[in-house]
Amino acid sequence: MSDSDAAAGPRFRRPTPDDHARVVAVIDEWWGGRRMRALLPRLWFEHFASTSWIAEDDAGRLAGFVVAFLSPDHPGTAYIHMVGADPNRRRGGVGRALYERAFADLAERGARRVEAVTWPGNRISVAFHRSMGFRVDDGPGTSPIYGTPAHPDHDGPGDDRVVFLRRLDAGG
Ligand SMILES: CC(C)(COP(=O)(O)OP(=O)(O)OC[C@H]1O[C@@H](n2cnc3c(N)ncnc32)[C@H](O)[C@@H]1OP(=O)(O)O)[C@@H](O)C(=O)NCCC(=O)NCCS
């Protein structure tokens, strides 16, 4: 990718099931070698497209994606399952643009709050979510992990998680 390619703003569209293969082909690399594929089965592109987005450049190269949904069990609550931006475009506003689009989708469908989680060692994700208006849950059951309040063993033994919360109906 040239500098001019990186500078060009991406285009945004809904994902389709055909996008699944190209996204899972890159996500382990985008997450710095962490094994992410199993967390993004094809069903996300088949059943959650109306609250999810793909960003791509003029040549159709993937620039980023976000997958989100409304909670079936908790009316008014939405959840962002995964967001990623091409490492060559980081700090260029792709993540912010994807989240803003997802927030609009979710609010339009009745969500008043949105949640997300990350692992405490992912300092960039923590900074990104704070920048996007999320607060870190520091309530009961949390303790500082890598300097951020987190829920130990949230997703299983050793799988600690920072839980992020953001209002959608009161300016963040
Ligand atoms: C998290 C991620 C999606 C952010 O995407 P991005 O396109 O680089 O983010 P943006 O450029 O829109 O940044 C928005 C804000 O987040 C914060 N931010 C983003 N990256 C940051 C970093 N490396 N350090 C500190 N703050 C950061 C900044 O406040 C930034 O605003 P600014 O650039 O005006 O200061 C991207 O880093 C990524 O794909 N990481 C790997 C996957 C991942 O961990 N996803 C999150 C967990 S599911």
What does this structure look like?
With 172 residues, this protein is α+β, with helices and mostly antiparallel strands. Helix content is 26%, strand content 26%. The protein contains 5 helices and 9 strands; from the N terminus they run H-E-H-H-E-E-E-H-E-H-E-E-E-E. The protein has helices at 3-7, 20-30, 43-47, 94-108, 123-131; strands at residues 11-13, 53-56, 62-70, 77-85, 113-118, 135-136, 143-145, 148-150, 162-167. The strands form 2 sheets. The protein has a 7-stranded mixed beta sheet, sandwiched between helices. Strands 7-8 form a two-stranded antiparallel ribbon. The longest helix has 15 residues, at 94-108. It is globular. Residues 1-6 have low confidence and may be disordered. Bound molecules: coenzyme A. The site of coenzyme A (COA) has 20 residues, from strand 4, helix 4 and helix 5. Coenzyme A (COA) binds at residues 30-31, 82-85, 90-96, 118, 122, 124-125, 127-128, 131.
